[in-house]
């Protein structure tokens, strides 16, 4: 009741204020169009404008109510089509997982236009076509995938590279991966596939340069890194050492090699052989001396005994080692060879016999052959 009274009082007050304004602010509206004109009081014209605004507002709302159902229907229809497309996409992905390639490809392609993820549809369809051996069709799906989604270059390129690897086309895969690597430095999947391709084509130089990046991204364990580095440097040294004129290249590989690998016996032997073939036996001698002082190995001892540098000096060094290892058969054989080289026949024979006692070996007999010839002489 109180609110009603207040509303009545407020209405009377507004009416009185409005009446006072009408009396104190006279004026009129004059609208002239051609030879015709319309004239009315200022306040009546103001009321007409307000009424026209109210009418226009309700007309616009009415039109909006008529148009909106059509928009709602289109939106509903789009969502329904998308739901159906997603259901077909799921069925296609399931068929792909189950190995039903033909059905998977057809289902995924048919659902692509209405799917909210056409990139997934076309990439999966490309994979299904690839597994069927339809390589041209597979490429068409990849091209379509690239057109449907901005920024799909990486995904499409990775899929292409993987397919090329499976088709035994590593050179094509390498070209794609190198392009992606320039664009996306240190992308994990690109680096993994690069490693796979380098190994498949025996590209040891490429693998050697890739290993630090794989390790930095933690894509290989420390053990795997050491295995890959050993294999890469071993194969590169073997390859370059085939031509003695490539000795500088071999030197560079040895200099670039991680410190732990320069203590590897097999690599030391390979490097020594390369130096010897390039007529750099003094360097090979220093290498073997240093290696044997820090890491004793029968293969290094054998290589040391076969060197032809300064046999007398070498024998002095070998006999120092012999004081620490008097029963080492390989060292005794090496001392025999060095003694033979400087013409100490009796000492050579003693060393050969001692080596044979420690480990009977046909190699000792072959090393003794010059002694037999000397005896006959």
From TrEMBL:
Pathway: Porphyrin-containing compound metabolism; protoheme biosynthesis. Its main location: membrane. Keywords: Cell inner membrane, Cell membrane, Membrane, Porphyrin biosynthesis, TPR repeat, Transmembrane, Transmembrane helix. It is a multi-pass membrane protein. InterPro entries: Heme_biosyn_assoc_TPR_pro (IPR005254), HemY_N (IPR010817), TPR-like_helical_dom_sf (IPR011990), TPR_rpt (IPR019734). The chain crosses the membrane at residues 42-63. Residues 27-133 form the HemY N-terminal domain. Involved in a late step of protoheme IX synthesis. This is Heme biosynthesis protein HemY. It comes from Vreelandella olivaria.
């Amino acid at each position: 009741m109180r609110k009603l009274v207040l509303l009545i009082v407020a209405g009377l007050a507004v009416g009185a204020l409005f009446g006072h304004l009408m009396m104190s602010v006279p004026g009129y509206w004059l609208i002239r169009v051609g030879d015709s004109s319309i004239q009315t009081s200022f306040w009546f014209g103001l009321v007409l404008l307000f009424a026209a605004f109210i009418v226009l507002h309700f007309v616009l709302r009415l039109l909006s109510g008529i148009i909106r159902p059509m928009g709602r229907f289109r939106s509903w229809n789009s969502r329904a089509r998308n739901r159906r497309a997603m259901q077909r996409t799921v069925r296609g992905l399931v068929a792909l997982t189950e190995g039903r390639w033909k059905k998977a490809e057809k289902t995924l392609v048919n659902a692509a236009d209405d799917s909210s993820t056409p990139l997934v549809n076309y990439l999966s369809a490309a994979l299904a076509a690839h597994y069927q051996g339809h390589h041209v069709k597979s490429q068409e799906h990849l091209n379509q995938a690239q057109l449907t989604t901005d920024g799909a270059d990486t995904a499409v390129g990775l899929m292409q590279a993987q397919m090329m690897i499976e088709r035994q086309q590593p050179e094509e895969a390498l070209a794609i991966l190198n392009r992606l690597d320039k664009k996306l430095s240190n992308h994990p999947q690109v680096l993994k596939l690069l490693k796979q391709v380098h190994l498949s084509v025996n590209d040891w130089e490429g693998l050697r340069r890739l290993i630090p990046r794989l390790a930095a991204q933690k894509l290989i364990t420390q053990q795997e890194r050491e295995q890959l580095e050993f294999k890469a440097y071993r194969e590169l040294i073997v390859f370059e050492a085939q031509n003695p004129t490539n000795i500088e290249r071999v030197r560079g590989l040895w200099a670039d090699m991680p410190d732990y690998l320069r203590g590897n016996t097999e690599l030391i032997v390979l490097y020594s052989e390369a130096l010897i073939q390039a007529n750099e036996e003094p360097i090979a001698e220093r290498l073997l001396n240093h290696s044997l002082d820090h890491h004793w190995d029968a293969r290094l001892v054998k290589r040391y005994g076969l060197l032809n540098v300064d046999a007398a000096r070498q024998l002095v060094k070998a006999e120092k080692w012999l004081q620490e290892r008097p029963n080492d058969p390989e060292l005794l054989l090496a001392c025999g060879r060095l003694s033979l080289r400087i013409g100490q026949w009796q000492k050579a024979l003693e060393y050969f016999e001692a080596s044979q006692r420690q480990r009977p070996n046909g190699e000792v007999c072959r090393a003794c052959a010059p002694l037999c010839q000397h005896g006959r002489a």
